[in-house]
Give the backbone structure.
Amino acid sequence: MNARALPWLPLAGVAVLAAYPWIGGEYSASLVARIMIYAIFALSLELLVGTTGLVCFGQAAFFGIGAYGAVLLASQELPSSLAWLLPASVGLAAVYALLMGALSLRTKGVYFIMVTLAFAQMAYYVIHDTPLGGGTDGIYLYVKPGLALGDTVLLDLERGSVFYGFTLACLVAVYAALAMLQRSRFGHALAGIKANEQRMRAAGFSTYPYKLAAFVLSGAIAGLAGFLFAVKDGFVNPELLSWHLSGSVLIMIILGGLGHLRGAVIGAFAYVLLEELFKSEAVFGSFARHWHLGLGLVIILSVALLPRGLVGLLDRRPA
Amino acid sequence: MSTEVLLRGVDLTRRWGGLVAVDQVSLELQRGTVHAVIGTNGAGKSTLINLLSGELPPSAGRVELLGRDVTGWPQPRRARAGLGRSYQRNTIFPGFSVFENCRLSAQARHAHPWAVWQPAAQCGASRAAAQSALERVGLADQIDQPAGSLSHGGKRQLEIAMCLATEPQVLLLDEPLAGMGAEETDRMLDLLATLRDGHAILLVEHDMDAVFRVADRITVMVNGAVIASDAPDAVRRSPEVQAAYLGEQP
């Protein structure tokens, strides 16, 4: 409804993001690329929390598995082809989501939150404490993947500007796909499950397969974000699977405003920019060491003052 | 009158630990009849509906829908096979429009979840089913309103419309008159009378006047067990029923 009132807003956002590397310079373009990756990650969780009403507290597992997939599956000598490395990494995350969803979706409410956290911690400890993932030190990705047709290089993600454009394209594609999904019968059924699952079952919807499909799709999108993250920095470590990150992405979508795709993107920008602000010694001097405190206070204040998130500021309808 | 049995419960029993909430209840719902189940609070009426609809598995006994044993079927599968129910407390989708409440219910029969490129709002089959259900209950002029803003009576009508939108053959109605005024009650009873054609209806209701006005058959439950099941006049005259339920009234 509101999307129709402001149809230019997402388009203007894409235009600004596309032009940004020319305006902002290399360092800040790299920061924006990181934020766009988090925006994809936040969109994956929005599908579960905001659309379907499933509060997943293990989203970092999919992010980390996508990231580790990119590094572990890639060749360390020649550039691997995106054509298989990307689907394979995303597929790994989706398979873990299938496993986690199949079991956790049998529980509800706070038990669901705890079971998803437990599954994510399991993945974390496998990466953290076994030789499989290089242990606590993490692993480097020495050669970044690309896409070539014969001898013609179509995409070389080693180049920052190409990576930036590819990330933006992924963000736009994920956003558009989720917007289409929400309008479809599948999406309306998810909204019905969020509003009243009992009634959906009484009408004849087998709700479990719907929730599982949403869960796997969400895991795949989070895996895509993780893949991009690994390729961007050329480095992965176990913290990518930690519950801190699961919590951060939950805060992003709450900060932005639950129930809106725009909210997830806006929340990712707000969260990372606030974090950068409070970490900045130029602004806060020695207090920058305690950036968690400043960030935490701002989040508490914004949740208290903006119960509908930052999108609530744009949307003047009564709650 | 046809005597086609659409839903049959056979020796249905549900125990909660030592408590027997429903005790070997058998009943048949025929097409074209309103079968009322009455009983005091805690007599097991709502549990019986939950056993028939598939929300609760029975401890013993079985359920047959359209001649098939559906005891092991989960509720959504029974619903798609033609078993609709409404709830005692409103269980609408308050944030959706009145129309979308019905359209989404109807979508269960036209699911196509994989066709993600088609907007739900363009699903012709579910739109048509929703429109006809809303016209039937008399909410056709309020379709764009948010469901949560309807009056209490309007929400009760919407409950029935959502049930009808799934194109059921059997309707299990749990206290559709709860909390309604006299005028709204009259309208709902007229609606039930028109729904009798083509449906088998199970009506759980506290309002005795209403039950005796609309029911073709009445089953009386006390402490989980059936003490009488007969035509309304016979039930009214039954000494056991008078003793157990109607008190000293004639």
Remarks:
- Residues 217 and 230 of chain B are 6 Å apart (CA to CA).
- The beta strands of chain B are 5-16, 19-30, 33-39, 60-65, 68-69, 83-86, 170-174, 200-204, 217-222, 225-230.
